[in-house]
C-alpha cells in the first residue's frame, strides 16, 4: 500500500467545499484509542498514530474524479479502496482488524492536514497542503475521525457533486472556457434553475444573499404552506404557527422553566442563554438577525421537551425532526385519536437565517396544547412577567443608607438625630469649589442639596438630592428650627474642613449656618468694620477689587456650634481651625433659583424645601443693603506683597456647584434604567483609554452644519473643564428654531444661522447676536467640523430630478465646500438615514462619496485630507435602536496620518462595544411623572383596543388610531408580545415587522407608541433613547411636540461620542 504522497495537493484544490477563511472543523465523533501493529512498529511518528491524531483535520477520498483526487468529510461520500491480494494489506490502521469486502467491511483512504495554531483556517502555522502520509481506515473507525462539516461546506459539496460533476453532464466546457449555452442544453429545467440560483448566491448578485436559498425553501415546503419572508429567532419563528393563542414569549417562558426544573443548562453565550437571562430580568425576548444551526438545534431540542409537539427543520440538505411524531392510527376514529402537532421551520444555511411557516394550528389543537402545559404556563407567566415600568439597576451604598433615614413629617427634625445621621453617612469627594478648598488639599467632603448650577445647564435639583432624597428631606425639615421664617433653595453640607477666606458670590439674600458635631474652636470668621481679628488675603475675592493678595483685613469670630447664625455670604468669611469632627450646614438662596423649571420646583417642594419667591428675595436684599466697602484704615499690606500687583478678579465665577466626579458618582448611585446613564459613557471611554481628561485645559472651536448639538455635548462630557465653543452653526428644515434654541440653552454658541446659503458665504442674520451680516469666526479658530447629510437624495436618478437639483441634497454640497475652503484639522460627518439605503445600493453611495461623484459633491478631490468611513450599529453603542448610521471621518494630512485615522475608526468601533445594552422600556418615565401628567392634559383616551383597556393618543385623529389598532392586532397574529411592543407611528401599514425586542425602529422618527404603557412616547423619552441625559439639559421653552420633532433630527449622541472620542484620542 502506498504510504507517502511525494507531491501533496493544495487543500483548496482537493478538499470539496474547503475555504481557507473558515475555522478548522472539530472532530465529528469518537475514535478508538488504538492502533494497528504496522502503525505501532513502522509509523509511530505518523499523523495516524494515536498520540498525534487530534493535531490534524481528517478527510477521506471522495467518489469524484478531477485533476486531483478529491477528499470529503462526509462519510457517505467516501470511495472504498479495492481489496489487496495480501491479507496483511487489508488491515485498518486504527483497530488492526482485517477489512475485506466479502466480510462486510472495506477500507477507505484517509488524509489529513495540520490544525491551525490559532484555531482558524489560513492562520499562522496552518497547512496549505495535505500531509504526505496516507492512512487506510475502516468506515466504522474512521467516521468519528473525520472533521465536522460546516453548513457552508455542506452546501458547497452538494453543488460540486450534484451540479458540477453529474456524470450525465458532459461537454459543458469548450476550449477551456465555461460554455453556459451548452450546459443549459444538457440540463433539465430544474437542474438549470438550481445552478443559476447557486451561482447568484455565491456571486451575491441577487437582491440579498439569502434570496436564492429562500426561493428554494419556498418550493421545498410549498405543500405545507407559505413561508414568512421575515428572518426571526427560533421562538418567534415557532410562534408563527401558534399565534395568537401562544406568543413567542410564552413559548420561551415554558421552555426555560422546564429546563430549570430538569436542571439543564443552556450553552454559554448561545441564544438560549440570552433568552433565559432576559426572562429572569423580566425583559423583552431578545431578537437576533442571524443564528447558527447549532443554536437553532439547541432551542428546538429544549422546546420539544417542554411542549407536546414536534418540529421539522427544513434545510437545503433535507430536514431534521425534533420530538416524536405520533401519527393518527387509521384503525381509530378521528375523535379517539390524538395526533402530535407538527411545526415547520426553514433554516437558510448560507445566510444563517431562520424562517417560520405561515401555518396556524387549528383551535382544537391549540386548546389541547394549552391544557397539557396549563400548570407550567401559569407558573412561567407569574415568574417571568415582563417589566414595563422602568427599574433602577443601581442601589449603591448611599441608596441603602438613605433608605434607612427616617424623615419627620409634622415636626422639625431633632438636632441630635440630624447630627448623628450626618456623621454616619458616606460623604462624597468634591473636587470643585476651589474658592473654599484649603490650600494643599485636593478634595474635600462636601455636597450641595437642593438647587444647584451644574456645568451643563441651568439651575436644577442637584444629583445628590435625587440620590439621597430622604437625607435631603431631613436637612430641609431641620431648617424649621431657624428662629425666624426663612426661605432657601439650597443646603450646603461640609464635613471636617475649614473653608478658606472666600465670598459666596452666587448667594442671593441672607444665609443661615449651624455647626454640628463634637469639636473645639472652629468659629466662623466674618469681615467687619469693627473687627479685631486679622485675616490675610491669599487669593482675589470676587466683588472686592480694592483687596489685593497680601492685604490683612479684620473681622469678628462667631461661635456656630449648635447655634444658628444669620450672615451675608457675599461678605468675605472663612472657618477657623478646629479639633474633632465638624459638620456645618448653610441654608441659602442660589442666584437664579427663581428660573428653575416646574419639575425641579415641585421635586424640591415635596422634600420640604421652602423655596423663595422673587418678592421675598427682593425684600431681604433691600434689608441687607449694599455690600461693605473696605476702607484703607481697615486693611494693611504685608511686607512681602507687591503694591503694584494688579487686581485679579476671582476666576471662581466660572465654577459650578457640582463637579463632574460628583455627577459620575450620582449616575452610578441614582440610575435611571438598565442601560443609559447621563455620563456613564464618558467615564467608560476614559477608563478604556486609560486617560483622565477631567482636568485637561483644552477649549475646542466647533463648526456645525445641520448636525445638531451631539458632538458639542459629547466634547462637553469628555472635556468637562472647558466647555466647547460653537463658532458657528446652521440648522435647516422644520426644526431649525428648536435646534438652535436647544443649542443656545445648553452650549456656548457664538453664531447661529437658519439658512444654508448664509452659512456657505460666511455671514448672515445671527440668531445669537440678532443682527444682520454677522460674520462667521475665522477659520484659524476652527478645530473640529461636524456635519450631517441625507443619503436618499443622492440615490435618486429619475428623469430630470437628481441630487444636483434636490434641495434635500444641498447640505452635502455646502459641507464639501466648507471643508475645501476652511480645512479644519478634524471633521466628522454623519449619514443618519444610512439604514434605509438598500444593501446593494450602499456600495454605490460610498463610491459616489469617495470615488466617482463630481468634484463639488464628493470627497475624493479633497486631496489635503485622509478619509475613512465607519458603519455604526446603534444597538452596539448601547442605544435602544435597530437602526444604523454612517460616519465619515476626516483628518487633515498635516495633522494626522492615514494610519492614525484608521486607528481612530477601529477605536470608535471598540469603544462602542464597551457600553451596556439598553431597552426602551427602561428609559420611559414613571407613571405620575410631572411631564407625563402635563402631556396627558392634551391627549385623548379611548378604548379602541378592548384587550388593553384605556389607551392614550396624542390626538383624536381616527386614522392614527386605526393604524395603531392594525399594528397591535398584526403583531398579536404573528406571536409578538404586546407588553413589549413599540411601533413607529410614521411607518406605513405595509412596512413590517413590528418590534417587541425592546428596541426602536425609525431613528428619523420622533413619534413612537408603547403598547406596554398604552401611550405615545414623550419628546423627553425620545431624546433619552438617543442618548441625551434630559435631566441635565435645559429644555425650557421647548414643549413636547417640539421635542419630538427635534429628537427625530438629532444624531445619536453615544455614536457621535465614540467617533469624536476616537478622533481626539489618536
What are the main properties of this structure?
1066 residues, alpha+beta, 8-stranded mixed sheet, 7-stranded antiparallel sheet
How does the SSE layout of this entry go?
Blueprint: H1 11-14, H2 37-42, E1 56-61, E2 71-72, E3 107-114, E4 135-138, H3 139-142, H4 151-164, E5 173-174, E6 177-178, H5 180-186, H6 189-203, H7 211-220, H8 234-242, H9 248-261, H10 271-280, H11 293-306, E7 310-315, E8 318-322, E9 342-348, E10 353-356, H12 363-372, H13 374-383, H14 397-403, H15 415-423, E11 429-430, E12 444-452, E13 460-461, H16 463-467, H17 469-478, E14 490-495, E15 511-516, E16 519-521, E17 524-527, E18 533-536, E19 551-558, E20 565-567, E21 573-575, E22 578-580, E23 583-588, H18 598-606, H19 614-624, E24 635-637, H20 660-670, H21 680-689, E25 701-705, H22 710-718, E26 725-730, H23 736-746, E27 748-749, E28 752-753, H24 756-761, E29 763-766, E30 771-775, E31 784-788, H25 792-795, E32 797-798, E33 801-802, H26 810-822, E34 826-831, H27 839-852, E35 865-873, E36 884-892, H28 898-912, H29 930-936, E37 940-942, E38 951-953, H30 958-973, E39 982-984, E40 1008-1010, E41 1015-1016, H31 1019-1025, H32 1040-1049, H33 1053-1065
Parallel strand pairs: 7-9, 25-26, 25-31, 26-27, 26-28, 31-34
Antiparallel strand pairs: 1-2, 1-3, 3-4, 5-6, 7-8, 9-10, 11-12, 12-13, 12-14, 14-23, 15-20, 15-23, 16-22, 17-19, 17-21, 18-19, 19-24, 29-30, 32-33, 34-36, 35-36, 37-38, 39-40, 40-41
Helix pairs in contact: 6-7, 8-9, 9-11, 9-13, 21-33, 22-33, 28-33, 31-32
Amino acid at each position: 500500500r502506498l504510504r507517502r504522497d511525494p507531491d501533496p495537493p493544495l487543500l483548496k484544490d482537493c478538499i470539496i467545499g474547503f475555504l481557507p477563511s473558515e475555522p478548522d472543523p472539530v472532530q465529528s465523533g469518537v475514535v478508538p484509542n488504538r492502533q494497528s501493529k504496522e502503525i505501532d512498529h513502522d509509523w509511530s511518528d505518523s499523523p495516524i498514530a494515536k498520540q498525534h491524531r487530534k493535531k490534524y483535520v481528517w478527510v477521506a477520498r471522495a467518489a469524484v474524479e478531477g485533476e486531483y483526487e478529491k477528499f470529503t468529510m462526509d462519510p457517505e461520500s467516501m470511495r472504498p479502496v479495492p481489496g489487496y491480494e495480501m491479507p496483511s494489506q487489508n488491515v485498518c490502521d486504527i483497530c488492526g482488524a482485517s477489512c475485506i469486502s466479502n466480510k462486510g467491511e472495506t477500507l477507505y483512504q484517509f488524509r489529513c492536514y495540520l490544525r491551525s495554531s490559532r484555531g482558524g483556517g489560513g492562520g499562522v502555522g496552518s497547512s496549505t497542503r495535505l500531509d504526505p502520509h496516507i492512512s487506510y481506515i475502516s468506515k466504522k473507525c474512521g467516521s468519528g475521525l473525520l472533521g465536522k462539516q460546516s453548513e457552508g461546506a455542506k452546501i458547497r459539496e452538494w453543488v460540486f457533486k450534484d451540479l458540477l460533476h453529474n456524470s450525465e453532464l458532459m461537454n459543458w466546457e469548450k476550449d477551456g472556457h465555461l460554455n453556459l449555452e451548452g450546459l443549459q442544453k444538457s440540463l433539465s429545467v430544474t437542474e438549470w434553475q438550481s445552478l443559476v440560483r447557486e451561482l447568484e448566491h455565491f456571486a451575491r448578485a441577487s437582491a440579498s444573499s439569502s434570496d436564492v436559498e429562500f426561493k428554494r425553501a419556498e418550493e421545498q415546503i410549498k405543500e405545507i404552506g407559505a413561508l414568512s419572508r421575515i428572518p426571526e429567532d427560533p421562538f418567534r419563528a415557532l410562534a408563527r404557527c401558534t399565534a395568537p393563542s401562544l406568543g413567542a414569549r410564552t413559548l420561551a417562558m415554558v421552555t426555560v422553566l422546564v429546563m430549570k426544573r430538569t436542571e439543564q443548562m443552556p450553552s454559554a453565550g448561545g441564544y438560549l442563554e440570552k433568552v433565559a437571562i432576559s426572562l429572569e430580568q423580566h425583559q423583552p425576548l431578545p431578537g437576533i438577525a442571524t443564528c447558527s444551526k447549532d443554536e437553532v438545534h439547541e432551542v428546538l431540542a429544549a422546546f420539544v421537551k417542554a411542549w407536546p409537539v414536534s418540529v421539522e427543520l427544513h434545510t437545503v440538505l433535507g430536514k431534521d425532526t425534533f420530538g416524536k411524531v405520533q401519527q393518527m392510527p387509521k384503525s381509530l376514529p378521528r375523535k379517539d385519536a390524538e395526533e402530535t402537532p407538527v411545526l415547520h421551520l426553514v433554516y437558510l444555511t448560507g445566510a444563517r437565517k431562520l424562517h417560520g411557516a405561515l401555518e396556524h394550528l387549528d383551535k382544537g389543537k391549540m386548546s389541547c396544547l394549552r391544557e397539557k402545559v396549563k400548570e407550567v404556563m401559569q407558573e412561567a407567566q407569574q415568574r417571568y412577567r415582563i417589566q414595563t415600568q422602568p427599574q433602577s439597576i443601581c442601589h449603591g451604598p448611599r441608596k441603602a443608607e438613605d433608605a434607612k433615614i427616617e424623615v419627620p413629617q409634622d415636626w422639625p427634625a431633632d438636632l441630635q438625630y440630624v447630627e448623628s445621621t450626618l456623621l454616619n453617612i458616606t460623604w462624597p469627594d468634591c473636587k470643585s469649589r476651589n474658592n473654599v478648598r484649603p490650600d494643599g488639599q485636593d478634595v474635600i467632603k462636601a455636597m450641595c442639596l437642593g438647587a444647584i448650577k451644574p456645568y451643563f445647564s441651568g439651575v436644577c435639583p442637584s444629583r445628590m438630592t435625587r440620590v439621597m432624597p430622604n437625607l435631603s428631606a431631613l436637612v430641609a425639615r431641620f431648617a424649621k428650627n431657624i428662629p425666624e421664617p426663612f426661605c432657601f433653595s439650597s443646603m450646603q453640607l461640609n464635613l471636617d474642613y475649614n473653608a478658606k477666606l472666600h465670598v459666596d458670590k452666587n448667594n442671593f439674600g441672607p444665609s443661615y449656618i449651624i455647626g454640628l458635631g463634637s469639636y473645639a474652636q472652629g468659629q466662623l470668621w466674618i469681615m467687619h468694620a469693627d473687627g479685631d481679628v486679622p485675616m490675610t488675603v491669599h487669593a482675589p475675592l470676587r466683588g472686592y477689587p480694592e483687596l489685593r493678595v497680601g492685604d490683612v483685613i479684620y473681622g469678628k469670630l462667631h461661635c456656630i456650634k449648635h447655634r444658628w447664625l444669620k450672615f451675608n455670604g457675599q461678605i468675605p468669611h472663612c472657618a477657623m481651625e478646629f479639633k474633632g469632627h465638624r459638620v456645618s450646614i448653610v441654608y441659602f438662596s442660589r442666584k437664579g433659583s427663581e428660573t428653575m423649571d416646574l419639575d425641579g420646583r415641585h421635586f424640591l417642594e415635596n422634600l420640604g424645601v421652602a423655596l423663595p419667591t422673587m418678592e421675598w428675595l427682593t425684600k431681604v436684599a433691600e434689608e441687607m443693603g449694599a455690600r461693605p466697602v473696605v476702607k484703607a484704615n481697615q486693611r494693611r499690606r504685608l511686607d512681602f506683597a507687591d503694591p503694584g500687583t494688579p487686581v485679579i478678579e476671582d476666576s471662581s465665577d466660572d465654577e459650578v456647584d457640582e463637579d463632574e466626579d460628583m455627577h459620575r458618582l450620582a449616575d452610578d448611585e441614582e440610575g435611571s434604567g438598565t442601560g443609559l446613564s447621563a455620563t456613564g459613557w464618558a467615564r467608560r471611554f476614559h477608563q478604556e483609554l486609560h486617560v483622565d481628561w477631567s482636568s485637561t485645559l483644552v477649549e475646542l472651536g466647533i463648526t456645525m452644519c445641520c448636525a445638531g448639538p451631539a458632538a458639542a455635548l459629547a466634547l462637553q462630557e469628555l472635556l468637562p473643564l472647558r466647555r466647547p465653543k460653537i463658532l458657528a452653526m446652521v440648522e435647516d428644515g422644520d426644526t431649525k428654531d428648536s435646534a438652535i434654541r436647544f443649542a443656545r440653552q445648553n452650549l456656548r454658541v457664538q453664531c447661529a444661522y437658519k439658512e444654508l446659503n448664509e452659512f456657505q458665504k460666511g455671514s448672515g442674520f445671527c440668531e445669537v447676536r440678532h443682527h444682520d451680516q454677522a460674520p462667521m469666526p475665522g477659520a484659524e479658530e476652527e478645530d473640529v467640523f461636524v456635519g450631517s447629510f441625507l443619503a436618499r437624495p443622492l440615490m435618486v436618478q429619475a428623469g430630470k430630478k437628481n441630487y444636483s437639483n434636490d434641495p434635500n441634497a444641498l447640505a452635502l454640497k455646502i459641507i464639501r465646500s466648507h471643508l475645501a475652503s476652511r480645512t479644519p484639522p478634524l471633521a466628522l460627518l454623519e449619514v443618519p438615514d444610512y439604514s434605509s439605503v438598500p444593501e446593494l445600493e450602499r456600495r454605490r453611495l460610498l463610491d459616489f462619496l469617495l470615488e466617482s461623484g463630481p468634484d463639488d459633491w464628493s470627497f475624493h478631490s479633497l486631496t489635503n485630507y485622509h478619509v475613512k468611513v465607519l458603519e455604526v450599529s446603534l444597538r452596539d453603542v448601547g442605544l435602544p435602536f435597530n437602526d444604523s448610521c454612517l460616519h465619515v471621518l476626516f483628518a487633515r494630512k498635516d495633522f494626522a496620518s492615514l494610519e492614525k485615522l484608521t486607528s481612530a475608526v477601529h477605536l470608535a468601533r471598540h469603544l462602542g462595544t464597551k457600553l451596556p445594552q439598553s431597552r426602551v422600556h427602561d428609559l420611559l418615565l414613571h407613571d405620575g411623572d410631572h411631564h407625563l401628567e402635563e402631556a396627558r392634559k392634551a391627549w385623548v383616551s379611548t378604548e379602541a383596543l378592548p384587550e388593553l383597556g384605556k389607551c392614550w393618543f396624542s390626538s383624536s385623529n381616527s386614522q392614527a388610531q386605526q393604524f395603531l389598532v392594525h399594528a397591535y392586532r398584526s403583531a398579536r397574529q404573528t406571536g409578538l408580545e404586546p407588553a413589549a411592543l413599540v411601533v413607529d407611528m410614521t411607518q406605513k401599514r405595509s412596512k413590517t415587522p413590528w418590534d417587541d425586542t425592546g428596541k426602536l425602529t425609525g431613528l428619523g422618527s420622533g413619534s413612537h407608541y408603547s403598547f406596554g404603557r398604552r401611550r405615545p412616547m414623550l419628546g423627553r423619552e425620545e431624546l433619552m433613547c438617543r442618548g441625551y441625559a434630559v435631566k441635565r439639559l435645559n429644555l425650557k421653552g421647548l414643549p413636547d411636540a417640539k421635542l419630538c420633532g427635534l429628537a427625530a433630527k438629532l444624531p445619536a449622541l453615544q455614536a457621535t461620542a465614540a467617533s469624536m472620542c476616537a478622533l481626539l484620542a489618536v
